[in-house]
Amino acid sequence: MSTGGIVGGIVAAVVVIIILILICKSMYVVHQAESIVIERFGKFKRVLDSGLHFIAPFADSPRSFQWRRTAISETGNIIDQTATHYRIDKRESIFNFLPQEAYTKDTVLLDVNALMYYRIVDVAKAVYEVDDLQGALSNTAQTQIKEVFGNMTFNEALQSQERINDYLVREFSRLFLSWGIEVMRMELQDLKPKHTISEGMKKQMIAERQRRGEFIKSEGKKMGMKIKAEGSRMVSVNLGLAEQESTRKRSEGDATSRIEIAHAEATALQLLSDALAPDKMSQSQYQISLKFLDIFKSVPNSSGQKVLYIGYRLDDVMGSISGLGDYFGLRPAKFKPPKRKTPVYQDDTQTDLPLHLKKDDDFEDLN
Question: Tell me, what's the pLDDT at 116?
Fold first, then answer.
């Protein structure tokens, strides 16, 4: 092989290598959700989005970008990695704010750790608007978090984490938008007091729970006594009403029974009067006759000396008794009652005089 052929081959190889280098320097394939900042002689030229792009070799060059990437390991731990690369990821990423101390309104010192979910919407601003984007985000977040917790008590902070997240999203979006960062959401990772404060708060919490327990017990006893008193009152009221109703019912029953008895007695007397009417005998005569018959029945049963007291108006009594024979069918038809001397009073006005002032004409006749 001649010398000229060797030289020609070397030159051709060098040309091919140069062409390949130029092609590599001028051609960039940008993946989806990525961007590359191109500078020409150190001045911003343009931003390459996804696709195939060609630039002027040696004149144009990509701008490297230093960024801290946060990832979650397989064990669930959060890992921070600092990388320098010219390809900028525009997908949603996580920014881990390092734990920082913040005082609440009631002077409780807290350790606060938060996660920010963001994405870069303007690559040029993210690269050129701020020198240290990571430090700027951390310092701004620290200021906002201290301001938020400084305006609320510890109990309010524990109960308002969702409200705190929404507030931080609004504030960070307003502040970081000028740096090309869009904040998607915020999450408070840790919110715990210091150890000494935590011990004091535990004791306070235990005391508060004991106080609430005693209060609930006392309220329960109070309510129980109130319910018992109300029940006793209702029982007394119901017993009183029942006794009143019972008394009323008994009174109504007694009145009804008396009315029925009176009706029965009236009916019996009316029947007796109807039965005695044919014999021209009054009810009083009939009752007196029955009493005398009872007296006469009891005389044979008694022993010893017998004394029988009979009223001095024997004719009235005998007249009542004498009529019973015909009523009961005990007197023979031919029997005639003996004639008795009817006592004659000289003065009818003596009928109303006392017994010891009346004349004893009847007894004189008997003698």
Answer: 87
Cα separation, 205 vs 335, in Å, equals 122
Query: Checking phi first, is residue 58 left (phi over 0); if not, alpha (psi -120 to 50) or beta?
Result: left
On the 0-12 / 13-18 / 19+ scale of CB atoms within 10 A, 100 is: middle
Structural domain boundaries in the chain: 21-63, 73-81+88-193, 281-297+311-348
Cβ-in-10-Å burial (0-12, 13-18, 19+) of 195 comes to: exposed
DSSP 8-state class, residue 350 = G
Task: Provide, rounded to the nearest whole percent, the portion of the chain with pLDDT above 70.
Answer: 76
Rounded to whole angstroms, how far apart are CA atoms 49 and 76? Answer: 33
User: What six digits make up the tokens of 315?
Assistant: 């004719």
Inform me whether the pLDDT recorded for 48 exceeds 70: yes
What pLDDT shows up at residue 367? 37
DSSP assignment of 272-328 equals HHHHHGGGT--HHHHHHHHHHHHHHHHTTT--S-------S-HHHHHHHHHHHHHHH
Supply the CATH classification number for the domain 73-81+88-193.
Answer: 3.30.479.30
The pLDDT of residue 359 is above 60 = no
Nearest to 181 by CA among 236, 112, 134: 134
* Mean pLDDT calculated for residue range 197-216: 82
C-beta separation of 114 from 145 below 8 A: yes
* CB burial of residue 146 (10 Å; 0-12, 13-18, 19+): middle
Please tell me the distance from the alpha carbon of residue 25 to that of residue 32, in angstroms, as a whole number.
21
CA atoms within 13 A on the CB side of 91: 10
Of 248 and 282, which is predicted with more confidence? 248
How do residues 255-300 score in pLDDT, each as one tens digit?
999 898 988 888 887 887 777 777 777 777 777 777 777 776 776 6
pTM, to two decimals: 0.49
Residues 97, 70: Cα–Cα separation, whole Å: 10
Task: Report CA 225 to chain centroid distance, whole Å.
Answer: 20
| Distance (Å, whole) CA 67 – CA 134 | 7
